[in-house]
């Protein structure tokens, strides 16, 4: 009898808390370890514990909190790399397959700024490199014992902490979600080849709270600073008194060694750097090399990648409109890709500028199409046997040549119609389309805005691949590019949380939205201001290059050949120096 009672008591006794695979529930954040960093936020100049490289340090040093008052920087959530660190609770919900009712993922809602995430555990492929980046990124996961291991890519450029310490859009993240009873710990490892010397690791803790409500919030942008100069980007110039004060206050106040406050891998471990293994996330792109990728943007608009410069196709009942035609050698492949979208005639071709990687296939593509009519009612004799080719008049001037001289481009590639004013309007496939003349990359740049589809085509005014190319021989200048980028920002309206909404197709690189254009505009404005400051101080071109005014952006935008950092700096310098 005694043994039976003992066995019964053993069976009903509480068992040790074991790790669990069920992550679903409402979770309240615990701040006992790092409340100062997560609630009021870290002090300016406090980079302790972060393995910043020189570029990441300059990026943080230049950051001015006033930038958050700009419309395009308001109401932005933090990316997944930081969103669990802010003062917000979360709700984790299972995502179920509608047919089998199996768990295929988790939705994580309520993070700081509410960059709602889907974490997929059904083995789906990662998007290709040219896909849009988001605040949440694209997350896939697998169970490693009782820990859910999550890998995230396709992140927007964002912040590792709220005092200017940034990560680039090349950052990837690995997380481990580990539940023990009513407690949840998330281990986060961020890899960034642009701003970090090694992976950055931290943990965040939560406690289950079924009674809490996690509600949706929405923010609107407003003008916070009166009479601000259009296009202004607040930042600290290297070596300025304001920058020096910002960088010394934290170390002085808390008696922290200056080197430790500046952040670096060497400051994290006693005895020097201990390298950590990094697991970069690789993109999954099943298409063979050389194929032209077709990406539906939204509405009637598609982006075609791989023909040289990006090509845009708008298709509908009236036919096909093509913005830019890519390289001449890819004409047949481009036409085959267009036919995947529509088999209707190509009616209109628009050129964003003159360069051959955007206009090389003009003749071949236009020859396959047919314009709907001539320029005026009753002028049937003016009907074109091919598609109309529209561009600014400076594109035609650059393709042609004075009488009696050979032309750089064949006659069949020339625009059939040009405009000379600030804009041109057309209506095609039940959509209003605006062409805005915004010279900067060349003297013939055009921004194309599909108003119903809500898509902007930037040409080479905006790239996600390298520094902006300033073709001074063809009338390019840095001021014009910045003005063009600011005009694009005027056209774009993001959805809630400053994401999506108006999409932007760059001249080269991945699909983007307003936040991506703002990041690029900020970079170019900051670099322009730094070089302008050195020019005003009488520095030579060699001295400007030695000052490394692009250091915090070189890892992201420098090229090993062609349009390199040095050629970019030289073009900006010469353009600014001539205005002194």
End-to-end Cα distance: 102 Å
Strand ordering within the main sheet = 2-3-4-5-6-7-10-11-12
Please identify the top-level CATH class of the largest domain.
Mainly Beta
Shape: globular
Percent strand equals 15-25%
Q: What's the pLDDT, averaged over the residues?
A: 90
Give the total of domains.
2
CATH superfamily of the largest domain: Calycin beta-barrel core domain
The DSSP helix count reads 15
Notes on the protein architecture:
The chain is an alpha+beta fold and about 575 residues long. The protein has 2 domains: about 20-215 and about 235-265, Calycin beta-barrel core domain (Lipocalin); about 295-520, Ribonuclease Z/Hydroxyacylglutathione hydrolase-like (Metallo-beta-lactamase, Chain A). The chain contains 15 helices and 25 strands. It has helices spanning about 1-10, 35-40, 55-60, 80-85, 240-255, 260, 330-340, 355-360, 360-365, 395-400, 480-490, 515-535, 540-545, 550-555, 565-575; strands at about 20, 25-30, 90-95, 105-110, 115-120, 140-145, 145-155, 160, 165, 170-180, 185-190, 200-210, 295-300, 300-305, 310-315, 320-325, 345-350, 390, 415-420, 425-430, 430-435, 445-450, 455-460, 505, 510-515. The strands form 4 sheets. Strands 2-3-4-5-6-7-10-11-12 form a 9-stranded mixed barrel. The protein has a 7-stranded mixed sheet with strand order 13-14-15-16-17-18-19. Strand 11 and strand 12 (about 200-210) form a beta hairpin. Helix 3 packs across helix 14 (about 550-555), helix 11 (about 480-490) runs antiparallel to helix 12 (about 515-535) and helix 12 (about 515-535) crosses helix 15. The longest helix is centred in the last third of the chain and has 23 residues, at about 515-535. Mean pLDDT is about 90; it is low at about 5-20 and about 285.
């Amino acid at each position: 009898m005694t043994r039976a009672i003992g066995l019964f008591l053993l069976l009903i006794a509480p068992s040790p808390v074991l790790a669990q695979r069920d992550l679903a529930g409402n979770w309240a954040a615990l701040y006992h370890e790092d409340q100062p960093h997560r609630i009021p936020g870290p002090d300016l100049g406090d980079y302790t514990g972060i393995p910043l490289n020189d570029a990441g340090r300059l990026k943080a040093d230049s950051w001015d909190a006033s930038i958050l008052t700009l419309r395009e920087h308001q109401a932005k959530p933090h990316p997944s790399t930081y969103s669990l660190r802010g003062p917000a609770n979360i709700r984790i919900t299972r995502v179920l397959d509608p047919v089998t009712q199996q768990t295929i993922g988790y939705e994580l809602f309520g993070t700081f700024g509410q960059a709602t995430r889907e974490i997929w555990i059904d083995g789906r492929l990662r998007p290709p490199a040219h896909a849009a980046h988001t605040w949440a990124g694209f997350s896939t996961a697998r169970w490693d014992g009782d820990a859910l291991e999550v890998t995230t890519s396709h992140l927007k450029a964002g912040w590792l902490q709220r005092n200017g310490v940034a990560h680039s859009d090349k950052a990837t993240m690995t997380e481990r979600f580990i539940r023990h009873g009513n407690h949840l710990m998330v281990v986060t490892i961020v890899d960034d080849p642009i701003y970090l010397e090694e992976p950055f690791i931290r943990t965040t803790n939560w406690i289950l709270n079924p009674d809490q409500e996690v509600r949706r919030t929405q923010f609107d942008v407003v003008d916070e600073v009166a009479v601000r100069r259009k296009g202004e980007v607040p930042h600290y110039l290297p070596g300025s008194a304001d920058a020096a004060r910002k960088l010394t206050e934290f170390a002085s106040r808390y008696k922290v060694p200056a080197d430790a406050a500046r952040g670096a891998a060497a400051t994290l471990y006693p005895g020097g750097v201990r390298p950590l293994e990094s697991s970069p996330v690789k993109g999954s792109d099943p298409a063979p090399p050389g194929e032209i990728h077709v990406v539906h943007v939204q509405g009637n608009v598609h982006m075609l990648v791989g023909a040289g410069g990006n090509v845009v196709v708008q298709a509908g009942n009236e036919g096909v409109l093509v913005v830019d035609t890519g390289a001449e050698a890819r004409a047949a492949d481009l036409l085959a890709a267009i036919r995947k979208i529509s088999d209707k005639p190509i009616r209109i071709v628009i050129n964003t500028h003159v360069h051959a990687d955007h206009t090389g296939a003009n003749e071949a593509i236009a020859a396959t199409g047919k314009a709907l009519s001539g320029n005026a009612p009753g002028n049937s004799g003016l009907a074109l046997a091919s598609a109309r080719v529209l561009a600014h008049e400076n594109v035609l001037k650059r393709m042609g040549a004075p009488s009696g001289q050979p032309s750089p481009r064949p006659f069949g590639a020339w625009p059939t119609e040009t405009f000379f004013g600030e804009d041109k309007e057309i209506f095609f496939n039940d959509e209003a389309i605006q062409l805005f003349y915004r010279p900067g990359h060349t003297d013939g740049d055009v921004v194309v805005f599909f108003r119903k589809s809500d898509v902007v085509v930037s040409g080479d005014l905006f790239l996600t691949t390298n520094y902006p190319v300033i073709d001074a021989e063809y009338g390019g200048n840095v001021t014009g590019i910045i003005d063009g980028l600011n005009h694009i920002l005027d056209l774009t309206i993001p959805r809630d949380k400053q994401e999506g909404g108006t999409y932007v197709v760059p001249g080269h690189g991945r699909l983007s939205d307003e936040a991506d254009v703002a990041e690029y505009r900020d970079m170019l404005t900051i670099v322009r201001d730094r070089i302008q400051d050195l020019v005003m101080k009488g520095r030579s071109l060699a001295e400007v290059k030695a000052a490394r005014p692009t250091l915090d952006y070189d890892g992201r935008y420098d090229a090993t050949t062609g349009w390199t950092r040095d050629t970019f700096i030289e073009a900006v310098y010469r353009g600014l120096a001539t205005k002194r």
